[in-house]
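Dear Dr. H.,

I hope your travels went smoothly. While you were away I took the liberty of generating a structure for the chain from your last submission, since the lab meeting agenda had it listed for discussion. I wanted you to have the full record in hand beforehand rather than looking at slides cold. The sequence, exactly as received, is reproduced here:
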Amino acid sequence: MSDQARSPGSENGPLSRQARPVLWAITVLAVGLSLFQLYAAGVEPLGLFYQRSIHLALIMMLAFLLFPVFGPGRRRGVIGWTIDFLFFCGAFLTGFYLSFFLDDIIARAGFWSQADIVVACIAVLTVLEAARRAVGLGLTVIGVVAILYAFAGPRGELPWLGEWLPGILAHRGYTLERVAGQLYLGQEGLFGLPLGVAATFVFIFVLFGAFLEVTGAGRFFIDLAYAATGRQRGGPAKASVLASAGMGSISGSAIANVVTTGAFTVPLMKRLGYRPSQAGGIEAAASTGGQIMPPLMGAGAFLIAEYTGIPYVDIIKVSILPALLYFATVYLFVHIIAVKQGMQGMRADELPSVRQVMREGWHFLLPLAVLIYLLVMHMSPMRVGFYAVMTMIGIAALRHVVWHWLILPRQGEPLRWEAMFRDIKAGFSVLIAGLSLGARNAVAVSLACAVAGIIVGVVGLTGLGLKFSAMMMAFSGGQIVLALIMVLLASLVLGMGLPVTASYIVLIVLVGPALTAEFGIPLLIAHLVVFWYSQDSNVTPPVALAGFAGAAIAGAKPMETSFQAWKFAKGLYLIPLFMVFNPEIILGGPVAVVVWNAVIAVVALAAFAAALEGYLFTRMGWPSRILIVVGMIGVFYPDLVYEIGGMLLMGVALLGNWLRHVFGNRARGRSAVQTGIR
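The corresponding predicted structure, in token form, is as follows:
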């Protein structure tokens, strides 16, 4: 189960089953964590270990309050409270031990004391247990397997286990002290780069998304999407695509996106004529696109920037076009189905007007404008997030002040101090709700990154990454397409147990060196390919988490909905392949080359959607669909002659479909006239 699947911010999440004292403790701890993060982001930046260790301590303490040991559906009881209290104390100890004794630990680097090793062991166990509760058992199992792998070898704690490892995976093995020091007392384990990104950039943007949610900005984006597309054919489905692009670009969570926008869009899609599985699949595919849509990209933009050393703003710039191509593909699928099934749009009286929506919620665009402006000015992403949150809070407060002091008096309403105090109290409640929700939503992401740090630490200790690269070369025979298929399959398998962020981190550590050094894929494109492929567990059966969430809302069968989502999300597989063979679309180049690549990408994706659905302007026969597939192979081949040939083949197929549509309409028109005369 993914990090989003157990999001504690949902109405049916663990908060709904907590006792009042526990709710107060959760709120106090969550608000304290958010205030700590805001202080570190905008007032006084902290050192690496101070920031990460305190962040992890508060995150784990919050996780043990939110998620009882025996599951959210059971009472804790005496045994449960005892276990949770011990883990809570372990979280406090291991998180703050490092910050309390940091100077002493650095002074004895490599010569750890017995207390250091004991606390390190407690830290690893505590993190794995917290991840089991907040993220799922799969992530914890993978973390345990990684630690066992570090112990396996003639010089390790488990020499007998090393005898079972194939030759290429065998290594010398490491002692408990060496592994504990690597995972807790160094910069490559728990407190490595993944947690560093989660404890700085990701948290502050998750907090920003939480304030957008509690202040009503989410509903504003959904209403705006409806107002723009509701009257078109398949309007609610198209609104789902646009709303998911807007919401997902901030929330960065596929399942949270499905739950948020799907609650409004899926029932309307079903009413319009989409099958339940289609409605749920469309919402799942569109919501998955939110994780590849700037500025947040589900924490991916920050991680890619840290791993590659490329500025965050540049990551966002090059990610805009591929993300738009993905959403355009889903949008076209929606349109084709609507035309194919003869659907119409919603009536004007059922929809809000763009003017009305903008008049009531235009102020929600200001924090986004501030965010984009400061990013363009090359300010630190963490400081940008801080100012975006402050702007969101300021605008929400100013809205109430202006309403009561300026608008109501002009309408003849007297200024009532009781109402003012009541609104101030309500505003304070919204502030607390935003701070609390942001911290709760960050729990799963931070714990996933912490366990990913364990895996990365073991990979660095044992040299597994280089061995995995050698295995890729051996299995693929040096063929880049086969290597990419292997990455895709590996991401799908990992995605069954890991959330998207952790899956990306593990994959890039394992296959990144091979993709760049052995196959010659540019560093940035290699990271984007792995990141995009890491999303496929959201929409690919048998474990399609966003698809399952869409099925629950639509009342459809999970597997049927997942297959629909898998079909609509085909851009998730084709666009990364296009990046590899046409790197100019990411890395830039002559204007003519970039424009040409963008054009063939649009045509190829549109033709593929039509071929897959068997319809564009009218029904498409198998010869035309086969012609499009052959043309797509030519387009993806990195040679101008093949690209032109592929474009011609697809153009012939699409032109033939359009001509059939035109002449078919004329024939039907003449037939109708003759029938009328008779």
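Two observations you may find useful: Residues 590-678 form one domain. The two ends are 66 Å apart (CA to CA).

With kind regards,
E. W.
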